[in-house]
Structure formats: C-alpha cells, structure tokens
Specification:
about 110 residues, single chain, mainly alpha
Length: about 110
C-alpha cells in the first residue's frame, strides 16, 4: 500500500497549522513589543512575520511602526514602498487607497 499522497496531505495540513500558530504568536509578540516601546525587538519580530507571510499588510505596518519608534523615517518610507510594490505585483492592485490611509497614521506614529 502506498501512503505517500495521504502523508503529503497530512504534512501540508500540519505545516499550515503551525504556520498559523507561528503567525498568531508573532503577531501578539509584535503588538506587545510595540506597546512596551521595545522597537528593535518589534522590528525583528515584524521581519519574521514578513517572512512567514510576505503579503501581510499587518506585518508591514508593524515593521513601519517599529522603524518609526526607533526614529528611522527612511526605513519607514522604504518599508511602505516595498509593501505597495508587493501588493501591486501580487494582486495587480490598482487602488491602494485603503492601505495608504491605514499607513498614514503609522508613518507618523509617535
């Protein structure tokens, strides 16, 4: 009996499950780090979140807030531009007004 297909499906489901858990935990950690003004740590966590899900607007926002907290406005702008580029490429987005509105507060955060 060949169980490769079943094993592959089981493995995919486990990977997905643990990816969701890692994302949830890292999101909570980034929020706590930002709230307690641990911006360098939040930057690392947000970068990890981006690696888990490169299309996550939330991860970009956390990263921009961390850069802003550190006082690195150039990195805030670079992160914003990188996010817009990724969203345009991946989603062929024509109207990014919602993201732009959301991030305006982030760019001027603290």
């Amino acid at each position: 009996i060949d169980f490769r297909d079943e094993y592959d499906e089981w493995l995919r489901s486990r990977r997905y499950h643990y990816s969701l858990r890692a994302t949830s935990i890292a999101t909570q950690l980034a929020e706590a780090q930002l709230k307690s003004k641990k911006y360098a740590e939040a930057r690392n966590t947000a970068t990890f979140l981006q690696q888990l899900d490169p299309l996550s607007e939330e991860a970009y926002c956390y990263l921009m807030r961390a850069h802003a907290g550190i006082g690195d406005q150039k990195s805030v702008q670079r992160t914003y531009e990188a996010c817009i580029k990724v969203l345009r490429v991946e989603f062929d987005a024509k109207n990014l007004a919602d993201f732009a509105r959301l991030t305006q507060g982030v760019i001027h955060y603290e």
